[in-house]
Design a protein that fits this description.
Order of helices and strands: EHHHHHEEEEEEEH
Largest sheet: 6 strands, antiparallel
Number of helices: 6
Shape: globular
Mean pLDDT: 84
Helix content: 25-40%
Strand content: 25-35%
Length: about 220
Amino acid sequence: MLIPLKPGELVRLIPAVATGSQFSASSGNPRKLLQRVLISVIGGVIALLISQVLLFRSQAGPVFLVVGFVFLLYVLWGPILEAGRRNALLRRYPAAAIFEGVVADLFRREVVENRREQANRQGRLELVENRRTWLCLELEDEDGYLGQIRFPLEKKHELIRPGMVIRCLVLSERKDFSRIGALSDGWLPQLKQWVGEYPYLLRPAFEELCLRRLG
């Protein structure tokens, strides 16, 4: 069942500016966070040192000073920009609707999250893969298969079963939803549990909207 959103509802459900949960999701794994810290510290220190050298010799000194502070704050504004970009991908769709259906099937899949080369005991380089188990939910309603929501498996997800009701946003380039462009994160009301790779929706607002529209 698809219930089209009214004008203005989509932008209220998916914010332009990152929320706290979106900031956390966009911060990435410890490896990605370390990369941001290194970029922030190295870029910031170099820019500040250059600014000190040029401060009284060139008009570029204050510019490098500002650049240095921007780099030092990269750990903060990096995830904010990433979250804003991801939100914008869904906000751009001209058609959006609330979907209420069921979990038709679910299965697990091993996903390679990153690869790196590492020397073994013999000093030879070998490829090391970091894998993580993801849970895939296939959604359908009375009209048939809709799509899939995937996310890293956690212990709380062990309670999810086929046949459970699930609600999410469906987004499309077409007003008749003949072609689905994207799905948001999903809400399982029976478990009072949210699932999804990324928290696109303002969740209390979506739950309230579903109560008004679906009863």
